[in-house]
Specification:
FAD/NAD(P)-binding domain, 9 helices, eight-stranded mixed beta sheet, alpha+beta, 19 strands, binds flavin-adenine dinucleotide, D-Amino Acid Oxidase, Chain A, domain 2
Length: 381
Amino acid sequence: MTVSIWQADGAQPQQDVDFLVVGAGLVGCSAAWFAAQAGRQVTITDARDLALGASSRNAGFMITGLDTYYHHAVEQYGLATVRELWGLSRTTHRYLREFIRTGGVQVDDCGSTLLAETEAEARELEQAARAMESDGHTIVYHSRDPLNRGYCAAIEQPQDAAVQPYQLVQAIFRQSGAGLIPNNEVYRIEQDRPDAVTVYTRQFVFRARHVLLCTNAYSPALDPYFVGKVIPTRAQCLVTAPLTDGPVLNTCGYSDYGYMYYRDTFDGRLLIGGGRKQSKWLEGSTTDDRITDPVQQRLEQYLRARFPEIDAPVDQRWAGIMGFSVDKLPLVGTLPGKPNVGFAVGFTGHGLAMGAGSAERAVELLLKGTDPGAINAARLH
Ligand SMILES: Cc1cc2nc3c(=O)[nH]c(=O)nc-3n(C[C@H](O)[C@H](O)[C@H](O)COP(=O)(O)OP(=O)(O)OC[C@H]3O[C@@H](n4cnc5c(N)ncnc54)[C@H](O)[C@@H]3O)c2cc1C
């Protein structure tokens, strides 16, 4: 997002704010809630409006953990880090459950089911299951398909859930008590004094004590620090028309190493998402949230192949932009030379698993200097 000299030339009205959050998505609203709990006056600003980025376009899977299978995560990050990250995910879900309960958000306690499309993936799932069990996680391993749809094996996480993600962010925003200034792109951020940050936006020039960037996929367009660290990646979904025979799945189902996912919606449709594995060249490095034919065709083929009993037409299709971090872990830190400007980005398609807990750590880093641990962005320097 850029702003021309005609739209804003630096002479916009000045506004003093205490704690400014940039980005009114799941993570920005969660951060606003934590900053308010710490006694700060919070203002959120967004280029669009409340939750119109990935946070209201996702599949609403509240899945515990990362998208990397447990045994691979242990190989890649080490056991101590994996334990910390799964703990961060459980913490995130505890917060989300509270926001959901207080805010009357639609949720289905249907658990999640990670399914194997092939025998090779089934072997991976068995290894992941054994590693999770030996580390004390609550899972159920199935050596056969519990859904009877031709999958090869499955791992169930009974504590997981399917949520209405747009309602969730609206509820968090309401509970945060923060103010919101929508339709207001941020285009420059300067810290010229130790206790104040100047934030240029299309409508105002803010003077803030602290600023937190929760701009996920869009971060590289805002500050070059994020270039090469956060890669915007498109994800797409479709839903059928309402089905007459009740729910099809009763779980958050996902397979093909997370490239395919499917659930029932609250109004009786089947949602299918993913399908970008064969089109990474088209779906990577873009912030354009349009749908594309190859991915939509793949989603529809998957619908007809795995759910042959459904003949309802496809009713709606959409896309959103995820922020993949280079090592697939969230990034929490402060911008170089701008210690009062923090960030919580890079949720790699797992904001409902890691977002709120990461937002809490980002607020604590800014306000108290607390080390954000395994998600500290300093690991990439
Ligand atoms: C199709 C799809 C399916 C997904 N499914 C799941 C799922 O089932 N489970 C799960 O855990 N995750 C899922 N995700 C990922 C999840 O949606 C994200 O991880 C999460 O929404 C990230 O939240 P956020 O607040 O960081 O980002 P966003 O919701 O994208 O918010 C960023 C905000 O920053 C604003 N912004 C950006 N630049 C500027 C600027 N310069 N000035 C002002 N404002 C700016 C944007 O307008 C936007 O509102 C999915 C994503 C997609 C797209």
